[in-house]
Amino acid sequence: MNKRLEFDSLDLSFDARKILSSIYMQCQQGEVVGLLGRNGSGKSSLMKVVFGTLDAEHKSVRINGVSLQGDYNRKRIIAYLPQDKLIPTYVTLRTAFRLFKVNINSIISIIPQVRDLINLKPNELSGGTLRLIEVLLILYSPSSFCILDEPFTGLMPIHIEILKSEIIKSKGSKGIIISDHMHRHVTELSDRLYLLSNGKTYEIKEKEQLVELGYLHSL
Q: pTM of this prediction?
């Protein structure tokens, strides 16, 4: 049976400003779920709360209706790509692949030049190449769910297309939540789409809702 990740009852405030208050999202293995929202709407905060690196006043994160308890259990099931750097600056790519339990050859088959980069550290790579490798590390990690925050940042168009293809392949065995300011890519990939606005999530059934809810000026 496919696993289902659900989260709701999230309350998060910063300096008395309510960031998240009326949230419900679900993602099942076998689908890509998109999360859209304007800058500052709280998308990254929501992802961090679900992953467990940011605490909230209240939260409920469940797998098949069972609450996730403890950081180890959560991080074994969910892999998370933050907006900022994923791989520590002091480790080589070879070490990163080992830490994320990803077979180097599986990535080399997608990006052959990785073969010549595996002994380098993150600051010795171009930003776009590093970002592509980081996203692939998350996608190929042995987790049931992946949360991707701005995965297309800094990527060349050809690498964006490679990554979109890998996301589609990976959803065969994973549930994937993706958020990116390049909303057309998110919309194109998503089997289910949500918009975060004013601390609330809205499931988007028709593209016109993105205009009605103020996310887009026009289609």
A: 0.94
148-176 pLDDT per residue, tens: 999 999 999 999 999 999 999 999 999 99
Residue 180 has pLDDT above 90, yes or no: yes
- Determine contact, residues 99/62, Cβ cutoff 8 Å: no
CA 179 to chain centre: 6
Separation CA 213–CA 5 (nearest Å): 26
Please state the separation of Cα 52 from the chain's center in Å. Answer: 14
Q: Provide the token pair at 29.
A: 């293995």
Question: Which of 173, 194, 157, 146 lies closest to 23, judged by CA?
Answer: 194
What confidence tier does 83 reach under pLDDT thresholds 50, 70, 90? very high
Q: What are phi and psi of 22, to 5 degrees?
A: -135, 85
Query: Could you write out the DSSP letters of every residue in 141-169?
Result: SS-SEEEEESTTTT--HHHHHHHHHHHHH
Of 80, 186, 83, 189, nearest in space to 141 by CA: 80
DSSP string spanning 115-126? GGTTTS-GGGS-
Check whether domain 4-88+137-212 has CATH 2.60.120.600, yes or no: no
For β-strands 200-203 and 192-197, DSSP reports them as antiparallel
User: How confident is the model at residue 101, as a pLDDT?
Assistant: 94
Which of 105, 95, 53 has the alpha carbon at shortest distance from 78?
A: 53
